[in-house]
Specification:
Blueprint: E1 4-8, H1 12-23, E2 28-32, H2 35-45, E3 49-53, H3 61-70, E4 79-83, H4 88-96, E5 101-104, H5 109-147, E6 159-164, E7 172-180, E8 183-191, H6 195-199, H7 202-212, H8 219-233, E9 240-248, E10 253-259, E11 264-267, E12 273-276, E13 292-297, E14 303-307, H9 310-313, H10 320-333, H11 339-351, E15 360-366
Parallel strand pairs: 1-2, 1-3, 3-4, 4-5
Antiparallel strand pairs: 6-15, 7-8, 8-9, 9-10, 10-13, 11-12, 11-14, 14-15
Helix pairs in contact: 1-5, 2-3, 7-8, 10-11
């Protein structure tokens, strides 16, 4: 369909002139006499562009434009002002309030037509770019999802996960590695930033983790191996926090190495909770990396939880400290529920109705005999 232009002017002669000019080259038109009608038609007709008079009865065109730009349904419609006010102050005001152009009256048909065509082409170019970017982001999201281990593909690891990126693809990442039949590695990382730039790094992190997570390497070796390569890959001011939990079920030992990451939560089968707090450096920054390791005894029925900071910063009602306490309480509260159900309910409690400002990642593991 040809583009549709909404003409808003309280003078019928002006409307007729513009309809004739635009209609003569194939544009569809509709019209409104005032700001209120403009808002109604913009929502129902979805015009491709609006020609908006400034001086009208009731609200001015500037006020109408401000209302259009504050409504998600109409915010992206380009607005060209038509006005007898041709002073610089009025023109600047119109452009600042959201207009894409300003044409002084009396209007000349060829000038209006030329400006309408320019801004429609710009709009179509922007939409095409947005579609391309969305398609690329979707491809990246699918690729990122494809490299994530799912609980059903590694049932012996006894884990469940909740992962919700802020954008189509996220900078949070997890992996589960089977070292042998009774030894598993659980890794969670948070790359600084969001979206594509952070998500591109996750495949490299996975490859590095698989390279350094075997029996030849201690948990500290694993983290240092990831760090050494990431320092060469990350851009300025980029880094990642990470946590690697190494579970030896034969020895009933959980070894955790943290790199500037929120503490692991360990909940015993009886309901006693502890956090493994560590003072350590993020990965990808310092040539002399400071890591800490903690070892704890675990038994069948115990659970431990790795997560990224979105889970504790998003908790309703407080900051990071309050969010951590809320997460601990949820982990304890749902300790007898099936693991996958518990993870879903914990995530629901933590994210609540708050607007997401970060990726959400929670990985829970149940110790078996």
């Amino acid at each position: 369909m040809p583009p549709k232009i909404l003409i808003v002017d309280d003078t019928p002669l002006n409307v007729e002139l513009l309809q004739e000019v635009l209609g003569s080259v194939g544009f569809r038109t509709c019209s409104a006499e005032n700001g209120a009608q403009c808002i109604t038609l913009s929502r129902s007709e979805h015009p491709d562009l609006i020609l908006l008079d400034v001086m009208m009865p009731g609200e001015t065109g500037f006020e109408t434009c401000a209302r259009l730009k504050s409504d998600p349904l109409t915010a992206d419609i380009p607005v060209i002002f038509l006005s007898a006010l041709d002073d610089v102050k009025s023109k600047v005001k119109g452009l600042k309030i959201g207009g894409v152009d300003y044409v002084s009256k009396p209007v000349h048909g060829e000038e209006v037509l030329a400006r309408v065509r320019v801004h429609l082409r710009i709009g179509e170019t922007n939409r095409a770019m947005a579609r391309q970017n969305q398609a690329r982001l979707e491809e990246l999201r699918n690729a990122q999802q494809a490299i994530l281990v799912r609980p059903e593909t590694c049932p012996d690891a006894r884990f469940a996960v909740y992962y919700k990126p802020l954008e189509g693809a996220g900078g949070d990442f997890y992996d589960v590695v089977a070292v042998d039949s009774d030894v598993f590695g659980y890794f969670v990382a948070d790359v600084s930033g969001h979206g594509a730039s952070a998500a591109f790094l996750t495949s490299a992190i996975k490859a590095l983790l698989r390279q350094y997570a075997g029996p030849l390497f201690s948990p500290e070796d694993t983290m240092r191996g990831v760090d050494a390569v990431m320092r060469q890959m990350l851009g300025e001011e980029q880094y990642l926090t990470a946590c690697y939990a190494h579970l030896n079920r034969r020895a009933q030992r959980l070894s955790v190495v943290s790199a500037g990451h929120p503490p692991v939560i360990v909940v015993s089968a009886s309901g006693k909770a502890q956090t493994l707090e560590m003072d350590s450096d993020p990965l990808g920054i310092f040539s002399s990396l400071v890591l800490q390791r903690k070892d704890v005894k675990v038994s069948a029925g115990d659970r431990f939880f790795l997560y990224t900071d979105g889970m504790i910063e998003s908790a309703p009602g407080g900051g990071r400290k309050t969010g951590l306490q809320s997460l601990i309480e949820s982990c304890v509260s749902y300790r007898t529920d099936p693991l996958s159900d518990a993870v879903s309910m914990i995530a629901r409690d933590q994210t609540g109705a708050k607007v997401a400002e970060d990726d959400f990642l929670l990985l829970a593991v149940e110790v078996t005999g």
